[in-house]
Each structure stands twice: as structure tokens, then as C-alpha cells.
Design brief:
780 residues; alpha/beta; eight-stranded parallel beta barrel; eight-stranded antiparallel β-sheet; 16 helices; 23% helix; globular
Length: 780
Amino acid sequence: MIVRTALFAAGLLGSTALVSVAQAEEAPPPAATPSLELQFQDPPQSARPRVWWHWMNGNITKDGIAKDIAWMKRVGIGGLQNFDASLMTPQIVDERLVYMTPEWKDAFHFAAEEADRNGLELAIAASPGWSETGGPWVQPEDGLKKLVWTETTLKGGKRFKGKLAAPPQTTGPFQTLRPSGGIEEMLGGEAPKAPPVHYGEVKVLAFPASAAAQLVPVAATDGQGKSLVPVGLADDELATGVEIAKDPSGNANPELVLDYGKSVTARSMSMFAPGAAMMFVGALFSPVLSASDNGIDWRKVVDFDTADTTVTYAFAPVTARYFRLEFKPRKGAGFQMGNAAPGVAVNSFLPDSMGNSAPSKPLTVGDLRLFSDPKVDRFEAKAGFAIAQNYYDLAGPNDGAVGVAPGSVIDISDKLQADGSLDWTPPTGGDWRVLRLGHSLLGTTNHPAPPEATGLEVDKFDGDAIKRYLDHYLGMYRDASGGLIGRHGVQAILTDSIEVGAANWTPKMIAQFKRLRGYDPTPWMPTLTGVLIGSREDSDGFLYDYRRTLADLMASEHYGTVAKVAHNAGLKVYGEALEDHRPSLGDDMAMRSHADIPMAAMWTHTRQEGPKMTYLADIKGAASVAHIYGQNLVAAESMTAAMNPWFYGPADLKGIIDLEFVTGVNRPVVHTSVHVPIDSKKPGLSLFIFGQYFNRNESWAELARPWVDYMARNALLLQQGRNVADVGYFYGEEAPLTGLYGDKAVADAPTTRAYDFVNADALATALVNQGDELVSPGGA
């Protein structure tokens, strides 16, 4: 038992942790370790904080590199983690050094030599920008993907011989939607270039269809009584539809009223409004669907939030002639990225398109459909096209609805020809729907990177694609560093918080689902397009299994492959996960279990407002991973600020770093020390609105040694021994921690006993029963 546990822990550290007997015999005897008292007086490099070191849009000089590293060494920093980024960064050097050109490589080689000469640990981010693993060398077939589809209705018993409508090959988040701009465009920068296109077939499925399931209105008006043409609300182009004029007086919300000419019975609806939800901002509106028999007296049917895909809602049957959609501004909508300085109006930093002022243009409704048959409630989030924060809230109506029997779903994929033609006769009796499923690219790119370093994010569920990505990436850095990678020069790789959004397909998905879940997903795949299969509980159960499979693959194929390739190159892995709420599907503990140094994040806050709960959950999760799997070190992107230029000193930051220490961190990584390329532009460049401005031009830069030593001494003591926790707190299987506890404390966790979080993977594979205790590979 002891041997097995020890080997398991060593295996997690990768091949670089294994030393042969011959090597051990030849190695010189280790020097005596200084006493803890001596180490406390002058903490070793292993206890000293690291910093993030951002190179901004080619503003790089060797003179600045040498001065940055010399200052870091002088004030007691133990390492630097390099990012190549750009956020609307102006050029302040005479010659920009473009990413991975010979001139850039020469500068990086110099940086690697300087870090090595000064005894500083140098790490690189896992991609240009900060999220996540992507670049211009990623081929379209290896990019992040999503499902797309078309539907064709056929008569039972009647032979069909012709071409099926092809699913949209549009690169974008959902069906025909095109990608929105990245963070730079959102903040007023340039729009992205035309994205690449890639398409592949998935399945062709047929099943019995309800007759005339989609309800067709005869007229539409806006809240000002203007007649609209409703045809565009039900076409295949989701981004175009009808424009709703604003109330000039500002006393009424934008409205859209559909008149069906007679009473109809609706059981579900689907809606999309372009621009009504935005990155880092979320939903801007909380629309309300109401019904009326006379167009005057209204009763509410359902309310919901807008999203960057369609939103589909199911409800108990409602019979009415008129249906109205009222767009109420969502309370609390606004920029959610850390905490601003006291008195700073966050929206004052944002363009009008992000809600800084009332939109001057009419609101566009690109899609609005009502259906007489029940749909899967909020299938877009359940199927991975969008991200929900709490899936426990997505149960759907308790209306007893029953959809297509799974046994009646027929796989006719082998009858589809290469040109898209089909020759098939459906069984007799009623209409049949033929669902042609394919996959296309999301178009998600690594960000925020210089344009020359921006390309597709690699498929996070395909280990082979990720290995191809990393082999190329590390090969570039091996060349750039002059071979200084592994024991010297570049010693680690960092995966920052993953902010790539939703993705729900990979070419091996069906085989991986069978392996992980133990059954064939094919009869249930129509639920991924909103078709109810079996009961609501049946469909939701499959979609839970589907999300769980995506999360499992995110951990094993992406984070597991990053660790394997890095370890083979002699590199340690610093691994963040989701950081704040749920920016992507995944189990944040499983994602970090592959890292040598699990990592979290803590943003600045005032004493009055306190920390965001999500960051406490994030740190507790990273610490729990280290305690369970035996990594010992727990790092954190530390004291990150937003919209607080040159605002903080040690007195402001001490309470924040202390909170990190007591929550489990023992290796702080200060965010951020942006590279200072020239001395004539003080105080220097920034990471736009992000990060603590901790560089050699800070007013207290040469007084920073006691502050850095304070962090190092705390880290030194917290790195000793092993954490002791009495309780393992299993938080269920609808991960992640940052989603479950992003807005509230862990209400039922122990308050008088130390505890670690335990996820399903640890419960099933890491913990072993030793009498009256559960013991982890790390000794917890």
C-alpha cells in the first residue's frame, strides 16, 4: 500500500522526477541544508515569490531585459513567468520585435541567459497572450469545434432521393452566428481578420416528427406600434431579423409582439438577439415572454437572460393568440473583472457598446420562434454551446412532457453520400425528421496576443492535436532560447486561467463517450439540438453525461497532455484552471491534478467589500489538489488589480496576501511586472487595465525588498511539513468549485475542523481506505 501510493505520487510529477540508481550513485553528496532559522533570515529561491513578466506587443529591448531582471534579483524575486501579450499597446521602441522573428528570439535567448545567470526560475505561458493554448500554427482541423445541423422533414413510406441541406459551415459560436471580436475589439480595438473554415460530417439520424411543430405568426409589431415583417425571425440566418425601436420617452422597454391570427398552443420558444450578451459582461437583458388573448391583458409565461447563442425555454402549455417579448435591462449587468479602486466608475472605462450608455441603435431580434412541441429546456447550455454558472438550476418545467422514444431514432449515416445526397425510404406512418449533424469551427483564438502570434485555439478534447500544438510551441522556444530549456533557462510552463468559452465537439467524441460513460450516445444525440428524447429526466440525464464527458476530456486530453509533453521536455507545470466562476466546462480540481504546482488567483479588494467568494473557492481548490496528490507547492496569481493604475503599496496589499496564505497559498506570483523596454517613458507600459503595476519604475521599487522578504518568509514556513485536514469535503459531480461557490461561501462545510475539497476523480482513484481513515497519495 505504501509503495503503491508513493509511486502514484511520483508518477504525477512526470519523468523528470525519476532518477536512476546509477545517476544517484554518481551525484555528489548534497550540501547540508541551512537551519530553518537561517533560511528565515534569508529565504531560499524556492520560497521567494515569482512575478508575471509581460512583453507587450514587441516593445522589447535587451537593455530593459537586463535592468528588469537585475531589479527583480535585487529585491528578492525568485522567478519570472514570461507572457507575450498585446492589449491596444502603443509602440514606444524604435523597432518592434515581432514574436518569434530572429530579433525576438535573440532577445528571448538573452533573457533566458540573464535569468539563468541570476539564479531565477524562468517560465513561459502555454501560448501567446494568456489564454490558453493556441497560435497561428494551429491548423483548422485541430481548432476548437462545435456541432452544427440541419433538419429535413420527409413523408413516411415515401422514397426520398436527393441532397440533404448541408449544416452551416460558418465559423462562430452557434449555427450561422459568426464570431464576435476578442477582448481587444470589445474594448474598442480592431476587428479580427476573416477566420478559417473547417467542416466535417458527424451523423445522420431520423426519428418520427410532430406535424407543424413550429408556430408561424401572421403579423408582428414593436412596442411603438410599428409593423414588422416576421419572416426574418424564423430563417436560418440568426444574426439578422427585425429591429425594435426604442421608446423615445424612455419610459417603456423595447417590445416585440407576435400575432398568430388565432389561438395557438405553445410549449417552448427559442430566441436570439445579437449584441444582447457580451464577453466578461454577460447578459444585458432579462426578457419576459407574455401571452394575451386580446393583445391588451398580458400574463407572464417565462423570463430569462439573453446569451451569445440562442436561448430555448420550455414551459407548460400556453394557449393564446398574441405573444409579447419585453426586453428588460438586466440588473447588475456590467463589466465584471476584479474590483475597481474606490470611487472609480467601472463603466467609464468602457465603450458605449458595452452598456456605458443607452444604445443609440434599435435592438435587433435575430430569431424568435414558438413551438407546439416540447423542446429540451435551455439545451444550448446543457449541450455545451453556452456556459451556465449553476446547472442545478436547469431542471426544466415539471410538465410531464414526453418526446421521441430513443428506440425510434434510426442511424442512417451510412446512407449519406460524399456529395450530401441521400436515398432512403422512411418507415410508414406520419412524418419523419432527418437530422444531419456536422461540426465546424468556433473560431476562438488565443488572446490577448500580438496579431502575428494570434491563431486558433487548439481542440481541448483531442490529446493528439494538443501534442502537435505543444511540440511546435516548445520547439520554437527551444530554438529561441538556444537550447536553454529544462534544467537551465526555461524551467517551467504555465497554463493561465482558461477563458476560451464553450466548445462541445471533437472528432473522437462518440468513442470517448462510450469509453467514459459505458453506452452509445447516438440515439440521444438529437437532444444536442433541443429535440426531447424520452422524458425530460431522460434527456437531461444524457446531457449531464455529455457535459461530464467534455469535462473529463478537458482534464485528461488538455491538461494531462500539457503535463506529459512538458515533463518530457524537462519542464515543471504551473497550472491554473477556471479562476472565476465557469468560463469553460471543466472540473477545476481534475484540471489541476496534472500540474506540478497547482495554481489559483486572488484579486485585490477593499476591507469593506472583502474578497470575491470565487477566488477563495479557487485557492481552496488548488490547495486541496496539492494536499491530495502531494504536490506540496500551491501558487497563486496574486494581488491582481483592475483599473487601479499605480494605486497599491505594501500596506494596501498585506491583508490580501495574508488571506492567500491562510487559504493555502505558499508560492505567490505577483501579477504583474510588465517589461520596461526604455527608461524615457516612465512609469512604463501596462497590461492595459489589468494587474498590479509592480515594476522597476514604481515609486517604491527600490524599497521593495522587505515586502518581498515578508512574502518569502511566510511561504518558507508554509512550505514546511504537510498540511493536516480532518475532513474531505466531496462537493458533488456538477463541477467546478468556482461555479458552485463563486457567489457564496460553502455553507455546509466544516467550520471547526480543517478540510480539503474532494472531487469525483479523487474519490474514485486517489483515496484509499486505511481502517478508520481515508488516505490520499499526498498523505492527507
